[in-house]
Amino acid sequence: MQPQPREVTADYRRKAAILTWSAIVVGTLMAVALVVSVVFLIRADQDTRNAAYGYLALVLWVGIAAGIPVLLALAIPVARMRRRVREWQPDV
Questions:
Q1: 20 in Cβ contact with 82 (< 8 Å)
Q2: Distance between CA 86 and CA 37 in Å, rounded?
Q3: Among the listed residues 40, 61, 38, the one whose alpha carbon sits nearest the alpha carbon of residue 50
Q4: Does residue 40 have a pLDDT over 70?
Q5: Please, what's the b/e burial string for 4-19 (b: 16 or more CB within 10 A of its CB; e: otherwise)?
Q6: pTM of the predicted model as reported, rounded to 2 decimal places
Q7: Across the chain, what does the average pLDDT equal?
């Protein structure tokens, strides 16, 4: 006999919404960092006096690489929580 799933409470829904928005914010920040890094590379390539922009682009890439596990750590539980909220049928 399988255990009955616990009730999906308003607090659970609130936490799912907070984690969802957190994942969206982290993903957006990573996308912005990628675009800014490309702009930095273009700027560094135009003039040798702007070579520091290339290093800034590398720093952003390290930040993006560090952000990938954070995004996964947010997105995987969010997907499960949102599916559970969507599939939960209250006993009426």
A1: yes
A2: 38
A3: 40
A4: yes
A5: eeeebeeeeeeebeeb
A6: 0.80
A7: 90
Among candidate residues 74, 92, 88, the one with its CA nearest the CA of residue 16: 74
Tokens representing 69 are 């596990």
**What Cα–Cα distance (Å) separates residue 63 from each residue in 25, 30, 43, 46, 48?**
15, 8, 20, 24, 24
Choose among 63, 88, 92: nearest CA to 12.
88
Note whether 78 and 25 are within 8 A (CB). Answer: no
- Token readout for 91 is 């006993």
Structure tokens belonging to residue 68: 């990938």
Six-digit token string for 26: 């982290």
Q: How many Å apart are CA 54 and CA 35, to the nearest integer?
A: 13
